[in-house]
Amino acid sequence: MKTKINPMKRPKRRLRGAKPALPKIAALTVFSALALPLCGCTVFEASLEGMLSPPKLTKVQTEIYNALTLSIGEQSELIYPRSGEYRSPFVLFNMDGEATDEAIVFYREKSPNSGAAGGLRMNLLDRRGGHWVSVSDCSLSGSDIENVSFYDFGSGINVMVSSSFLGQPENALSVLNYSEGRLWELYKTTYRFMDIYDINDDGYNELFLVNYDPALESHIASLVGQSRREEGSRFGLLSSAALSKDVASVQRLTRQRINESSFLLFLDYSKGDNAYGTQILSCFSDNLVSLDFGEGFARRNNSNIPVLYSTDIDGDGIVEIPVTYPMLGYEGLTVPEQMLQVDWFVVNNEGIFSVSSKYSTYISMGYEYIFYIPVRWQGFVTVQKMENSTVNFVLYDNNSFADIMLSVRVSEALPEEEGWEHYGNEDSKIYIKKPKGDFPMAFTEDELKSSLYIVPKRGETK
Ligand SMILES: [Ca+2]
Ligand SMILES: [Ca+2]
Ligand SMILES: [Ca+2]
Known about the structure:
Mean pLDDT is 85; it is low at 1-54. The chain is mainly beta and 462 residues long. Strands 1, 2, 3, 4 and 5 form a 5-stranded antiparallel beta sheet that branches. Strands 14, 15, 16, 17 and 18 form a 5-stranded antiparallel beta sheet that branches. Strands 19-20-21-22-28 form a 5-stranded antiparallel beta sheet. Among the domains are: 1-191, Lipocalin; 376-462, no CATH class. It is elongated and about 90 Å long. The chain has helices spanning 22-34, 41-45, 48-52, 59-72, 445-451; strands at 76-78, 90-93, 102-109, 120-128, 131-139, 144-152, 157-164, 171-179, 182-191, 193-197, 206-213, 218-227, 234-242, 249-259, 262-272, 275-284, 287-291, 299-300, 321-326, 340-350, 352-363, 369-372, 381-385, 390-397, 400-410, 421-423, 430-433, 452-454. Bound molecules: calcium ion (3 copies). One calcium ion is lined by residues 312-314, 316, 318, 320.
């Protein structure tokens, strides 16, 4: 359910809990090495791994730690952010107009008076007269720091701190800046999905957040950023919109530019129970509006098809939205048994928004290729799954598989059986086999080239 902050434009998702337990042990070890009055047994509670390679604080970290304990005392535990670029309890970053770095330290109060709250806090230290001095301290929601990042949203550097609550789908977010010698909290919220992206192409990122509103029984999307509407620019909520009621969790955000100030946002989501959909929002002058297209672009997933997202599959700047249907002849089977056809829809923008189907395709299991089903095959040809990552495109006649039109195989080497030809460039793992003889539905070479598209490996361009 939970999605982490994406430091830059496109997601680099991290699995929750992927970080091993080492950092916490390390935190205790750091603490016990510096906090002398602790009883000796703490050291022996550390794992063997921790004892063999005790984390050493650098000179700067030691100076910062000493300045921190001067300010808050020693009854605290350093907290390691669980994901992202900054994984140390000591984060150094230049946050203001003055040229040297400031330090942020995350810690948890150990005082018995800290009550039911998580006791998470952050302390900001700056250099004064050649020494580190604690200048600001604030509490944070949640029980663990998930991610720390720095962004300029249009009015100087802000620090974003995400934290999680044990066993809850929400994360907390605080956006703060450091000016006039203290920390200011500019914005605070909870969220279930977040993406950070320059949604309106003004050169600065915005936050796109989704959270669940129990009163409305609906997920709400929010756009948060630097407002430039009035003379006094301000960081905060720009607009929000309720999403379709069947949103259970958000998977991914994709954007399409319409013109200078208008954009379409495609929010792929799970409805639960192996059903997926896409919510489209328009964003005009930073105003989010949910668009309703009735069916909601329903799709299923099974072991015969990769997970599909809204994406610009043909590189023309227009986002295509996937919708799945059982292939001819698979309608009566259960979803796990079905071969699925994927139709891709686009939004037409002619005064009012409407949608239309652009392509019908078969997508290979590992997303190695997209087969664009030619119009003259539609309604007549279906797909038969064979062994060795092979599928046959076959005529479907009288409720049964008939003539094979084309076979496509994904293979590291040329298949041993006769008739297979390599298809595509030299890196391609695609082999094809065409039927012998003349069929009315057979492909010409040109038709084949425009139908069978090899998906570039990651890192390659189209
Ligand atoms: Ca500075
Ligand atoms: Ca922007
Ligand atoms: Ca496209």
